[in-house]
Amino acid sequence: MRGKFITLEGGEGAGKTTQIKLLGEYLTQKGIETVLTKEPGGTPIGQELRSILCTGDKDKIDAVAEALLYYADRRIHVCQKILPALNRGAWVISDRFADSTMAYQCYGYKDRISKDTLNELYKITVGDLKPDLTIILDIDPKIGLARSLERNASSQIQETRHEGRALEFHQNLRNGFLEISKTDSRYAVIDANCPVEELHKKIVRLIESRISDA
Ligand code: TMP
């Protein structure tokens, strides 16, 4: 049987990475083969694209160029990692997927790249594949950005390209994710401003209520 595809989305510092790790441990304990992955950078070539996209000056490339690079990363990710895993029955949990492109490159920049263009890119590069469940971790950008910059300060790689944008960008982004969540029943929004363990429990409860064989 084909595996399940779950994506976690949200602005900077929402806690996705920690939650994905906890979720992976939880599903593995239940005997489910679980592949934890991320965008950008879920494959070796994707790692090179991630370095271009996430480091350096925030204005070094525009929203259109960004969207094309994120979709190049996604195409390789889907073909080389996500589909093979789903086809062998594994569950794939991805830290970001196409909703991030819609939120960042469209809503974040106030429609600098249109929804229609992004939907078209999705059709060309991803085709019919759609997550079974997309969890949006919602947090006030002021809290999220502070968390994210703190994390970066203790990291060797400075992935602060998006954090460097104005607060308005991050507020547009949050509103974008909330708007996107109304467009399909596969979305669920969770308030992420709570302790790690509490958030993990909320995510597990959600998955058990939405996915029958969880
Ligand atoms: P991360 O820090 O959550 O791993 O995400 C990397 C950065 O890339 C983050 O600032 C969001 C950004 N991003 C986009 O702008 N568009 C996309 O399509 C994706 C997947 C990520």
Assign the CATH topology: Rossmann fold
C-alpha termini separation: 14 Å
Secondary-structure element series? EHEHHEHHEHHEH
Number of strands: 5
Top-tier CATH class: Alpha Beta
> What global shape is seen?
globular
**Arithmetic mean pLDDT:** 93
C-alpha-based Rg, rounded: 16 Å
Largest sheet: 5 strands, parallel
Helical residues, percent: 40-55%
Count of the separate structural domains = 1
Class based on secondary structure composition and strand pairing: alpha/beta
State the fourth-level CATH superfamily.
P-loop containing nucleotide triphosphate hydrolases
- Read across the widest sheet, the strand sequence of neighbours is 2-3-1-4-5
What are its keywords?
binds thymidine-5'-phosphate; 214 residues; 13% strand; single chain; 5-stranded parallel beta sheet; Rossmann fold; globular
Quick summary:
With 214 residues, the chain is α/β, with parallel strands linked by helices. Helix content is 53%, strand content 13%.
Describe the protein.
There is one protein chain. The chain is an alpha/beta fold and 214 residues long. It has one domain (5-210): P-loop containing nucleotide triphosphate hydrolases (Rossmann fold). 53% of the residues lie in helices and 13% in strands. It contains 8 helices and 5 strands, in the order E-H-E-H-H-E-H-H-E-H-H-E-H. It has helices at residues 16-29, 44-54, 63-87, 98-108, 115-125, 141-153, 167-180, 196-210; strands spanning 5-10, 34-38, 91-95, 133-138, 187-191. The protein has a 5-stranded parallel sheet with strand order 2-3-1-4-5, sandwiched between helices. Helix 1 packs across helix 8 and helix 4 packs across helix 7 (167-180). The radius of gyration is 16 Å and the shape is globular. The protein starts with a strand and ends with a helix. The structure holds thymidine-5'-phosphate (TMP).
